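Below sits my pick:
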Amino acid sequence: MKKTNVGSRLALYPMPVTVVGTMDGDKPEWLQIDHVGIIGHNRILVSMFQKHHTNPAIKNSGKLSINLVDRDLLPKADYVGSVSGEKVDKSEVFDFHIGEGGTPVIEASPLTMECDVVEMFEIEGFDNFICSISNTYVSDDALDENGHIDYTKLNLVLFEMPTYSYLEMGPVIGKCMKMH
């Protein structure tokens, strides 16, 4: 297979489309971001451009929710990622409730993780929040007969950065450690 060096490019896309929620006083603050990563079995990294209006609310509360996005939720998610909370009140875009961990949970999201920020650091214009997961809420129709998450039932949307495109998650193509 011939390969071409395309330079120093971040090429880990596509990533799950997520809407971060946090409370700003008594109102929820929403922002679509797609820079969320796993850094352990109970830790995730949320990386957000420092100029986002949502960042100070996360710093003040020390909590956030990660709401995964399916096809039905995508237009609203795209909207909260396209307009600034500094200019537009996005608090009423989603129906939500406050989860047990004190964060806003989007009712229509098929999977939401409530998180506590355990560490913060800055890198090249981005605020990075290392979070522990306190609660995970999954729609009942996305659980299998053993109560485990069946990701094929979530119909999650993925984001691909270079073309700013949304993709659908595909079918299962094999089982890990059984492909040899």
Notes: The chain is about 10% helix and 40% strand.
